[in-house]
Amino acid sequence: MDHEADAYRTDLMTITRYVLNEQSRNPEARGDLTILLSHIVLGCKFVASAVNKAGLAKLIGLAGETNVQAKEQKKLDVLSNEVFVKALVSSGRTCVLVSEEDEEATFVEPALRGKYCVCFDPLDGSSNIDCGVSIGTIFGIYMIKDKENVTLEDVLQPGKNMVAAGYCMYGSSCTLVLSTGNGVNGFTLDPSLGEFILTHPDIKIPNKGKIYSVNEGNAKNWDEPTAKFVEKCKFPKDGSSPKSLRYIGSMVADVHRTLLYGGVFLYPADKKSPNGKLRVLYEVFPMSFLMEQAGGQSFTGKQRALDLIPTKIHERSPIFLGSYEDVEEIKGLYAEQAK
Ligand SMILES: O=P(O)(O)OC[C@H]1O[C@](O)(COP(=O)(O)O)[C@@H](O)[C@@H]1O
Ligand SMILES: [Mg+2]
Ligand SMILES: [Mg+2]
Is residue 2 in a domain? Predict the structure, then answer.
Protein backbone atom coordinates (compact mmCIF):
# COMPACT_ATOMS: atom_id res chain seq x y z
CA MET A 1 0.00 0.00 0.00
CA ASP A 2 3.09 2.21 0.04
CA HIS A 3 2.38 3.55 -3.42
CA GLU A 4 -1.06 4.72 -2.24
CA ALA A 5 0.45 6.66 0.63
CA ASP A 6 2.95 8.15 -1.83
CA ALA A 7 0.09 9.43 -3.94
CA TYR A 8 -1.06 11.65 -1.06
CA ARG A 9 0.69 14.41 0.85
CA THR A 10 0.90 12.87 4.28
CA ASP A 11 3.00 15.61 5.90
CA LEU A 12 -0.18 17.71 6.09
CA MET A 13 1.36 21.12 6.50
CA THR A 14 -1.89 23.07 6.54
CA ILE A 15 -1.94 26.78 5.87
CA THR A 16 -2.94 27.36 9.51
CA ARG A 17 0.10 25.45 10.76
CA TYR A 18 2.34 27.27 8.29
CA VAL A 19 1.09 30.72 9.37
CA LEU A 20 1.44 29.79 13.05
CA ASN A 21 5.03 28.69 12.40
CA GLU A 22 5.73 32.00 10.70
CA GLN A 23 4.18 33.84 13.63
CA SER A 24 6.48 32.06 16.09
CA ARG A 25 9.51 33.39 14.16
CA ASN A 26 8.62 36.87 15.41
CA PRO A 27 8.73 37.03 19.22
CA GLU A 28 6.67 40.24 19.21
CA ALA A 29 3.82 38.80 17.14
CA ARG A 30 0.55 38.46 19.04
CA GLY A 31 -1.32 36.39 16.47
CA ASP A 32 -3.30 39.22 14.84
CA LEU A 33 -2.03 38.49 11.32
CA THR A 34 -2.65 34.78 11.88
CA ILE A 35 -6.28 35.47 12.78
CA LEU A 36 -6.72 37.86 9.87
CA LEU A 37 -5.27 35.32 7.43
CA SER A 38 -7.52 32.59 8.79
CA HIS A 39 -10.53 34.79 7.99
CA ILE A 40 -9.22 35.39 4.46
CA VAL A 41 -8.75 31.63 4.04
CA LEU A 42 -12.34 31.10 5.16
CA GLY A 43 -13.53 33.67 2.59
CA CYS A 44 -11.56 31.84 -0.13
CA LYS A 45 -13.15 28.50 0.82
CA PHE A 46 -16.60 30.06 0.69
CA VAL A 47 -16.00 31.61 -2.73
CA ALA A 48 -14.38 28.38 -4.02
CA SER A 49 -17.52 26.51 -3.07
CA ALA A 50 -19.78 29.13 -4.71
CA VAL A 51 -17.66 29.09 -7.90
CA ASN A 52 -17.90 25.28 -8.06
CA LYS A 53 -21.67 25.44 -7.86
CA ALA A 54 -22.10 28.60 -9.96
CA GLY A 55 -23.95 27.00 -12.88
CA LEU A 56 -26.21 25.00 -10.59
CA ALA A 57 -26.95 27.70 -8.03
CA LYS A 58 -27.91 30.40 -10.57
CA LEU A 59 -24.78 32.37 -9.74
CA ILE A 60 -23.86 32.89 -13.38
CA GLY A 61 -24.71 36.14 -15.14
CA LEU A 62 -25.04 39.80 -14.31
CA ALA A 63 -26.13 41.27 -10.99
CA GLY A 64 -27.67 44.28 -12.76
CA GLU A 65 -25.29 46.95 -11.40
CA THR A 66 -22.05 48.52 -12.59
CA ASN A 67 -19.15 49.09 -10.22
CA VAL A 68 -16.90 52.12 -9.79
CA GLN A 69 -14.85 51.15 -12.87
CA ALA A 70 -18.10 51.15 -14.94
CA LYS A 71 -17.72 47.38 -15.23
CA GLU A 72 -20.91 45.31 -15.13
CA GLN A 73 -20.97 43.37 -11.89
CA LYS A 74 -21.52 39.64 -12.08
CA LYS A 75 -23.55 37.90 -9.38
CA LEU A 76 -20.38 36.20 -8.19
CA ASP A 77 -18.53 39.57 -7.99
CA VAL A 78 -21.21 40.84 -5.62
CA LEU A 79 -21.39 37.66 -3.55
CA SER A 80 -17.60 37.38 -3.24
CA ASN A 81 -17.33 41.01 -2.17
CA GLU A 82 -19.93 40.49 0.56
CA VAL A 83 -18.17 37.34 1.76
CA PHE A 84 -14.78 39.04 2.06
CA VAL A 85 -16.07 42.24 3.64
CA LYS A 86 -17.89 40.19 6.30
CA ALA A 87 -14.94 37.84 6.85
CA LEU A 88 -12.49 40.74 7.19
CA VAL A 89 -14.65 42.89 9.46
CA SER A 90 -15.55 39.96 11.72
CA SER A 91 -11.87 39.08 12.15
CA GLY A 92 -11.64 42.13 14.43
CA ARG A 93 -8.18 42.75 12.96
CA THR A 94 -8.92 45.26 10.19
CA CYS A 95 -9.63 48.97 10.15
CA VAL A 96 -9.79 49.97 6.48
CA LEU A 97 -10.85 47.86 3.51
CA VAL A 98 -10.48 48.71 -0.16
CA SER A 99 -12.37 46.48 -2.58
CA GLU A 100 -12.54 46.67 -6.37
CA GLU A 101 -16.30 46.47 -6.03
CA ASP A 102 -16.76 49.40 -3.62
CA GLU A 103 -16.34 52.98 -4.75
CA GLU A 104 -15.22 54.20 -1.33
CA ALA A 105 -12.93 52.63 1.24
CA THR A 106 -14.76 50.96 4.15
CA PHE A 107 -13.76 52.19 7.61
CA VAL A 108 -14.50 49.47 10.14
CA GLU A 109 -16.55 50.58 13.17
CA PRO A 110 -14.28 51.38 16.14
CA ALA A 111 -15.41 48.45 18.33
CA LEU A 112 -14.27 45.95 15.70
CA ARG A 113 -11.09 47.71 14.66
CA GLY A 114 -7.68 46.09 14.39
CA LYS A 115 -4.35 47.24 13.03
CA TYR A 116 -4.50 46.08 9.39
CA CYS A 117 -5.74 47.48 6.08
CA VAL A 118 -6.70 44.99 3.42
CA CYS A 119 -6.97 45.86 -0.28
CA PHE A 120 -8.63 43.16 -2.35
CA ASP A 121 -10.11 42.14 -5.64
CA PRO A 122 -12.80 39.72 -4.47
CA LEU A 123 -13.21 38.11 -7.87
CA ASP A 124 -10.57 38.68 -10.49
CA GLY A 125 -11.15 37.73 -14.11
CA SER A 126 -14.89 37.82 -13.71
CA SER A 127 -15.48 38.09 -17.47
CA ASN A 128 -14.41 34.43 -17.46
CA ILE A 129 -17.02 33.22 -14.96
CA ASP A 130 -19.73 32.24 -17.38
CA CYS A 131 -17.47 29.95 -19.43
CA GLY A 132 -15.91 28.17 -16.46
CA VAL A 133 -12.36 29.52 -16.92
CA SER A 134 -10.10 30.02 -13.85
CA ILE A 135 -10.77 33.11 -11.76
CA GLY A 136 -9.41 34.24 -8.40
CA THR A 137 -9.21 36.54 -5.39
CA ILE A 138 -6.24 38.87 -4.81
CA PHE A 139 -5.32 40.55 -1.50
CA GLY A 140 -2.64 42.81 -0.04
CA ILE A 141 -2.28 43.62 3.67
CA TYR A 142 -0.75 46.71 5.31
CA MET A 143 -0.28 47.63 8.93
CA ILE A 144 -1.67 51.03 9.93
CA LYS A 145 0.14 53.61 12.03
CA ASP A 146 -2.52 54.47 14.59
CA LYS A 147 -5.83 52.66 14.78
CA GLU A 148 -7.48 55.50 16.74
CA ASN A 149 -6.69 57.84 13.91
CA VAL A 150 -7.21 56.03 10.63
CA THR A 151 -7.32 57.93 7.34
CA LEU A 152 -7.18 57.10 3.65
CA GLU A 153 -3.42 57.77 3.85
CA ASP A 154 -3.14 54.42 5.61
CA VAL A 155 -4.03 52.62 2.39
CA LEU A 156 -2.26 54.98 0.00
CA GLN A 157 1.12 53.52 0.83
CA PRO A 158 3.80 52.16 -1.52
CA GLY A 159 3.47 48.44 -2.17
CA LYS A 160 6.85 47.74 -0.56
CA ASN A 161 5.19 48.47 2.83
CA MET A 162 2.87 45.45 2.56
CA VAL A 163 3.22 42.87 5.31
CA ALA A 164 1.56 40.07 3.37
CA ALA A 165 -0.06 39.44 0.00
CA GLY A 166 -1.57 36.55 -1.88
CA TYR A 167 -4.14 35.20 -4.23
CA CYS A 168 -6.47 32.27 -4.41
CA MET A 169 -7.11 30.70 -7.81
CA TYR A 170 -10.40 28.91 -8.39
CA GLY A 171 -9.35 26.60 -11.21
CA SER A 172 -8.98 22.90 -11.91
CA SER A 173 -7.87 22.88 -8.29
CA CYS A 174 -8.20 25.67 -5.74
CA THR A 175 -4.75 27.06 -4.95
CA LEU A 176 -3.85 29.75 -2.45
CA VAL A 177 -0.47 31.43 -2.91
CA LEU A 178 0.79 33.47 0.03
CA SER A 179 3.76 35.53 1.10
CA THR A 180 4.22 37.07 4.53
CA GLY A 181 7.52 38.58 3.40
CA ASN A 182 9.56 35.40 3.80
CA GLY A 183 9.29 33.73 0.38
CA VAL A 184 6.23 32.42 -1.42
CA ASN A 185 4.29 29.24 -0.67
CA GLY A 186 1.38 27.60 -2.46
CA PHE A 187 -1.40 25.60 -0.78
CA THR A 188 -4.01 23.45 -2.50
CA LEU A 189 -7.48 22.98 -1.07
CA ASP A 190 -8.22 19.36 -0.25
CA PRO A 191 -12.01 19.40 -0.64
CA SER A 192 -12.48 16.29 1.48
CA LEU A 193 -10.55 17.80 4.42
CA GLY A 194 -11.65 21.39 3.81
CA GLU A 195 -8.01 22.39 4.41
CA PHE A 196 -5.38 24.11 2.30
CA ILE A 197 -2.30 21.86 2.27
CA LEU A 198 1.21 23.04 1.39
CA THR A 199 1.82 21.69 -2.11
CA HIS A 200 4.21 24.31 -3.56
CA PRO A 201 6.82 25.11 -0.90
CA ASP A 202 9.18 28.05 -1.41
CA ILE A 203 8.17 28.94 -4.97
CA LYS A 204 11.00 30.46 -7.02
CA ILE A 205 10.26 31.82 -10.48
CA PRO A 206 12.72 30.66 -13.19
CA ASN A 207 15.23 33.38 -13.98
CA LYS A 208 14.15 33.45 -17.63
CA GLY A 209 11.02 32.02 -19.19
CA LYS A 210 9.71 30.73 -22.48
CA ILE A 211 6.26 32.33 -22.29
CA TYR A 212 4.91 35.86 -22.72
CA SER A 213 1.39 36.77 -21.74
CA VAL A 214 -0.42 39.85 -23.05
CA ASN A 215 -3.66 40.89 -24.72
CA GLU A 216 -2.27 41.31 -28.24
CA GLY A 217 -5.58 42.72 -29.43
CA ASN A 218 -4.36 46.04 -28.05
CA ALA A 219 -1.12 45.97 -30.09
CA LYS A 220 -2.05 48.81 -32.44
CA ASN A 221 -2.08 51.22 -29.50
CA TRP A 222 1.10 50.04 -27.71
CA ASP A 223 4.12 52.23 -27.04
CA GLU A 224 7.44 51.44 -28.72
CA PRO A 225 9.17 49.48 -25.91
CA THR A 226 6.17 47.14 -25.50
CA ALA A 227 5.89 46.60 -29.26
CA LYS A 228 9.66 45.94 -29.51
CA PHE A 229 9.59 43.48 -26.62
CA VAL A 230 6.72 41.45 -28.09
CA GLU A 231 8.44 41.50 -31.50
CA LYS A 232 11.60 40.11 -29.84
CA CYS A 233 9.53 37.37 -28.17
CA LYS A 234 8.23 36.28 -31.57
CA PHE A 235 11.29 36.90 -33.75
CA PRO A 236 14.36 36.67 -31.50
CA LYS A 237 17.53 37.83 -33.25
CA ASP A 238 19.97 36.09 -30.89
CA GLY A 239 19.36 32.58 -32.24
CA SER A 240 17.09 31.59 -29.32
CA SER A 241 13.65 30.02 -29.88
CA PRO A 242 10.59 32.26 -30.00
CA LYS A 243 8.58 32.44 -26.79
CA SER A 244 5.10 30.89 -26.62
CA LEU A 245 2.08 33.13 -26.09
CA ARG A 246 -0.40 32.23 -23.35
CA TYR A 247 -3.18 34.60 -22.30
CA ILE A 248 -6.17 33.59 -20.22
CA GLY A 249 -7.51 37.06 -19.40
CA SER A 250 -7.70 36.35 -15.65
CA MET A 251 -4.75 38.05 -13.97
CA VAL A 252 -4.66 35.45 -11.20
CA ALA A 253 -4.39 32.56 -13.65
CA ASP A 254 -1.90 34.34 -15.94
CA VAL A 255 0.29 35.34 -13.00
CA HIS A 256 0.06 31.89 -11.40
CA ARG A 257 1.34 30.26 -14.59
CA THR A 258 4.07 32.91 -14.88
CA LEU A 259 5.17 32.28 -11.29
CA LEU A 260 5.41 28.51 -11.78
CA TYR A 261 6.71 28.29 -15.36
CA GLY A 262 8.53 31.60 -15.73
CA GLY A 263 8.21 34.23 -18.44
CA VAL A 264 6.48 37.55 -18.34
CA PHE A 265 2.96 38.89 -17.90
CA LEU A 266 2.27 42.37 -19.17
CA TYR A 267 -0.65 44.76 -19.16
CA PRO A 268 1.03 47.81 -20.65
CA ALA A 269 -0.04 51.39 -21.17
CA ASP A 270 -1.48 52.13 -24.56
CA LYS A 271 -2.70 55.19 -26.45
CA LYS A 272 -6.28 54.60 -25.29
CA SER A 273 -5.37 53.75 -21.67
CA PRO A 274 -2.18 55.60 -20.67
CA ASN A 275 -2.33 54.01 -17.20
CA GLY A 276 -3.03 50.51 -18.45
CA LYS A 277 -5.96 48.59 -16.98
CA LEU A 278 -4.91 46.90 -13.78
CA ARG A 279 -5.47 48.51 -10.41
CA VAL A 280 -2.51 49.41 -8.21
CA LEU A 281 -3.77 48.54 -4.72
CA TYR A 282 -5.40 45.19 -5.29
CA GLU A 283 -3.91 43.82 -8.53
CA VAL A 284 -0.50 45.36 -9.25
CA PHE A 285 0.89 45.56 -5.69
CA PRO A 286 0.02 42.10 -4.34
CA MET A 287 1.21 40.37 -7.53
CA SER A 288 4.41 42.47 -7.59
CA PHE A 289 5.10 41.60 -3.94
CA LEU A 290 4.74 37.88 -4.72
CA MET A 291 6.94 38.16 -7.82
CA GLU A 292 9.76 39.87 -5.91
CA GLN A 293 9.46 37.40 -3.05
CA ALA A 294 9.81 34.57 -5.61
CA GLY A 295 12.95 36.12 -7.13
CA GLY A 296 11.29 37.88 -10.08
CA GLN A 297 10.70 41.56 -10.81
CA SER A 298 7.83 43.92 -11.43
CA PHE A 299 8.13 47.17 -13.39
CA THR A 300 5.65 49.86 -14.43
CA GLY A 301 7.52 51.12 -17.50
CA LYS A 302 8.99 53.86 -15.32
CA GLN A 303 9.91 52.38 -11.96
CA ARG A 304 9.85 49.37 -9.64
CA ALA A 305 6.13 48.73 -9.17
CA LEU A 306 6.36 48.41 -5.37
CA ASP A 307 7.82 51.93 -5.11
CA LEU A 308 4.68 53.53 -6.59
CA ILE A 309 2.77 55.76 -4.19
CA PRO A 310 -0.91 55.68 -5.18
CA THR A 311 -2.94 58.84 -4.87
CA LYS A 312 -6.39 57.27 -5.35
CA ILE A 313 -7.71 53.94 -4.15
CA HIS A 314 -8.74 52.73 -7.62
CA GLU A 315 -5.64 54.06 -9.40
CA ARG A 316 -4.32 52.04 -12.35
CA SER A 317 -0.80 51.36 -13.57
CA PRO A 318 0.88 49.63 -16.48
CA ILE A 319 2.62 46.46 -15.32
CA PHE A 320 5.35 44.09 -16.55
CA LEU A 321 6.08 41.27 -14.13
CA GLY A 322 7.77 37.90 -14.12
CA SER A 323 11.18 36.28 -14.56
CA TYR A 324 14.07 38.53 -13.54
CA GLU A 325 15.88 38.49 -16.89
CA ASP A 326 12.77 38.97 -19.00
CA VAL A 327 11.73 42.03 -16.99
CA GLU A 328 15.33 43.27 -17.16
CA GLU A 329 15.03 43.19 -20.96
CA ILE A 330 11.85 45.28 -20.82
CA LYS A 331 13.53 47.77 -18.48
CA GLY A 332 16.38 48.04 -21.00
CA LEU A 333 13.93 48.88 -23.81
CA TYR A 334 12.30 51.64 -21.73
CA ALA A 335 15.72 53.01 -20.74
CA GLU A 336 16.72 53.10 -24.44
CA GLN A 337 13.55 55.02 -25.33
CA ALA A 338 14.19 57.54 -22.56
CA LYS A 339 17.68 58.44 -23.96
O1 LIG B 1 -9.74 41.61 -21.20
P2 LIG B 1 -8.42 42.29 -21.03
O3 LIG B 1 -8.42 43.71 -21.45
O4 LIG B 1 -7.28 41.52 -21.66
O5 LIG B 1 -8.15 42.35 -19.46
C6 LIG B 1 -7.86 41.24 -18.70
C7 LIG B 1 -7.54 41.66 -17.31
O8 LIG B 1 -8.70 42.22 -16.73
C9 LIG B 1 -9.01 41.59 -15.52
O10 LIG B 1 -10.00 40.63 -15.77
C11 LIG B 1 -9.53 42.62 -14.56
O12 LIG B 1 -9.96 42.07 -13.36
P13 LIG B 1 -11.51 42.09 -12.83
O14 LIG B 1 -12.24 40.95 -13.47
O15 LIG B 1 -11.28 41.91 -11.37
O16 LIG B 1 -12.07 43.44 -13.19
C17 LIG B 1 -7.72 40.87 -15.11
O18 LIG B 1 -7.97 39.74 -14.35
C19 LIG B 1 -7.10 40.52 -16.46
O20 LIG B 1 -5.69 40.45 -16.39
MG1 LIG C 1 -9.14 41.95 -11.22
MG1 LIG D 1 -12.61 41.77 -9.78
Answer: no
Same domain, 164 and 217: no
* pLDDT attached to residue 27: 75
Alpha carbon distance 255, 315 (integer Å): 20
Number of domains in the chain: 2
Which among 283, 284, 288 is the best mutation to test ligand 1's pocket, defined by most ligand atoms within 8 Å of the CB?
283
Residue 228 sits in the same domain as residue 137: no
Q: Which of 177, 200, 223 is the last residue of a domain?
A: 200
Task: Give the pTM.
Answer: 0.93
CA angle 138, 139, 142 (to 5 degrees): 160
pLDDT value for 52: 82
> At 32, is the pLDDT very low, low, confident or very high (cuts 50, 70, 90)?
very high
Could you give the angle at which helices 224-234 and 324-338 cross, rounded to 10 degrees?
140
- 123 C-alpha to center of ligand 2: Å? 7
